[in-house]
Fold each of these.
Amino acid sequence: MMHLPTTLFAALSLVTTFVNADVEFISPKAGSTLNGGGAIEIEWKDSGEAPSIADLTTYQLFLCAGGNDEATMIPCPALTPTPGQFSVTGNKATGTVGIGIGADTKNAYFLKIISTAKTGGTVTNYSPRFTLKGMMGTFPANVVTALEGITDTKGPPTVNNVGDANNPAALPDASLFMQPYTMQTGITRYAPMQPIPPTKITKREQKPLYPTSAVTIAKTILPLPKPQTTITQSQTFSISSRENPATPAPHPKDDMAKFLARWKD
């Protein structure tokens, strides 16, 4: 059984001669060897393929190892506790790699990034493979078997589920956002549209959006969470603003002017 460390990790790479994704990672290089437990500096750019980074909002990063299908991969822990934002974090990230996640098999590791599009849906990209040396863990038998058949540094193919005019089937059904989060299953979960604060307080008592649920205290180690990304319903509320055209009020000339003058020195 493979044990996962509590410290999460980050490392990203993409072969520069094989680009079929919205994000192209330029550091570290494909097929490179990295130190397990060390700091990793990563950088990426827009690949020029649709969807562009400008059309994406948030992302989540995962470290994987094994074959090119989920059945032959180790569980992919999230590299970030919360989704990153392309407009905030830019094109760089830093993280560390725990030494207990697996073995140091050549080109066993690759990364997965799930990005949410402004139009709805997600695009999942996989980096090429790289090696982590100094690793102290082990891989399950099915992962070892899958790695024996790997002969290059290519990772799994891109999965484009971005919903737009060319791919309307990828747009989430509106009913998905109405299901309570705890009642949903699968690796992708859906959250309702974020409410807009009112312009004034009209009620003195607040009612919960959903009924309370039972709580069971864990007495043993719980399994790893299965959800990998959360899609929030697109916001339909919009605002507009303009400069105030009113003429500024003149400076006071009465006792208030004398009061304010006291603070000039």
Note: Confidence is low (pLDDT under 50) at residues 1-21.
Amino acid sequence: MEPLCTEELKGNADVVEFCNIPPYLNLLVAASYTLQEGPVPIRVGGLHVFSVERKDENHAAVLLQELQVIDTSGVFDIKWRGSSSDLGLLPCLGQASADGSLRLYSLQEGSGVEKVSLQERVNIAVSSSMCLSLDWCPMGAKDQIALSHSDGLISVVDVGQAKTGVILSAEVHEFETWTTSYDSWDPELLYSGADDSHFCAWDLRQGFDSPVFRNRKAHRMGICSIQSNPQVENALITGSYDENIRLWDKRMMQSPVMRFELGLGGGVWRLKWHPFDEGLILAACMHNGFAVIRADGHDMQVIESYNRHASLAYGADWYKGQWGESDDEAAHQASDNSGTMRSLVATCSFYDKALHVWEPATQACNKRK
């Protein structure tokens, strides 16, 4: 399979995120992290803002237009969220930075969608250690962001007040906390996974004194990604350096419902549920490229692979609309059918600094009401 379009960043590409707020679904941000060697090593990065435009009626060709480049600290993670609080009504992008800071950017409109830009609104030093991941509290709940750190720390930052500040922080893992994420259905439940192979859940009403659960045995190596399913209340997945994806039922957390090994040296760095198909997963597998995976009942299988990148597969994300329709149509569709739909994916790889946009051959199941 060939990419629809490609771009080379000026730094090592490690994360991509499509905007999730209409009518800006065609906005894509790719971020980079580069270690500049020297007597005092410096971690630098950049945010590359693109628009993804359809070039023909069949959507068989795509134009990737770079709108803006922001030089910043090395970027480990970014996430979009819309907000009705002090952050404004336009989408907001959060950045987990190598210098230990949380940065927030508001989307500013120009003379048209193609003229939008990001403007930094918040830059707060959260920790002296690197910020490795971040997640927004689920939409409609509190304006809070959780961050994980390279020294085992987790922090929760309130971004809804006039003055942004850390409201919870504790060292909860022995080694790097690679990932933290909120439960899609419970804004008080926060997950974390680390290089100590511990998979934990925390009730934020009780702080970080004691986890709701801590699983020490299921993962044989560090945990890189945790994603709650936004369409299935009790389902979540974890990805690990041990090359396995695990599907969990949060009502029974003693052991995973199923474990699926990708193999071939592919530590599972990033996992993303499809925005409409409750069983479709996109995985970035480091040395083993990218995979589209179907989880169905107690079975999981790779149904498509993408190996056009020449370096470590790190960043991956689904387009949040329905590819083949306008963003407005996708945002307002009300259908009771369960037909199939086309999807669009953005992926990036590290040392070759490559960003690819491609369309999976796999048809997603569209059960959106």
Note: DSSP finds one helix and 30 strands in the chain.
